[in-house]
Specification:
single chain; 123 residues; Jelly Rolls; five-stranded antiparallel β-sheet; 9 strands; 47% strand; globular
Length: 123
């Protein structure tokens, strides 16, 4: 799957679909379900300053290599994946985090089904 971050121009508008998440204690990995043979996502926060999106990946799914013009923080919420950042390979599991530097090529692939939180920090 190719990843294309949302454009910041579409953010900071009232967002009724995420109002039910505000002011509550959340278990992030429970907010996005696994779907057979695909990647599912759920945006939690979307603002000009950045966004938080939850993803679930079925086994053997992933995101193809790409770059982003801003830093991205990935935290694994469940399962395991392999990550490539600027030519280095890492295996991550639940509770681990990696920061993708702005403009560095990166990709990821499921080792097992896994869920992650992606935090994008924009300028």
């Amino acid at each position: 799957m190719e990843f294309k971050p949302e454009s910041p121009e579409t953010t900071d508008k009232p967002d009724k679909k995420r109002d039910d998440l505000k002011g509550k204690v959340l278990v992030l990995k429970d907010l996005v379900n696994y779907q057979d043979g695909t990647v599912a996502s759920r945006m939690v926060v979307n603002r000009k300053a950045g966004s938080i999106t939850l993803f679930s990946f079925d086994e053997d799914e992933g995101l193809s290599e790409h770059t982003a013009p801003y830093d991205a923080v990935v935290t694994i919420l469940d399962g395991e994946c392999e990550v490539w950042v600027a030519g280095e390979t890492f295996q991550l599991k639940e509770g681990e985090t990696i920061i993708f530097p702005a403009n560095a090529p990166h990709a990821l692939s499921a080792i097992t089904r896994f869920k992650m939180m992606l935090i994008m920090i924009r300028d």
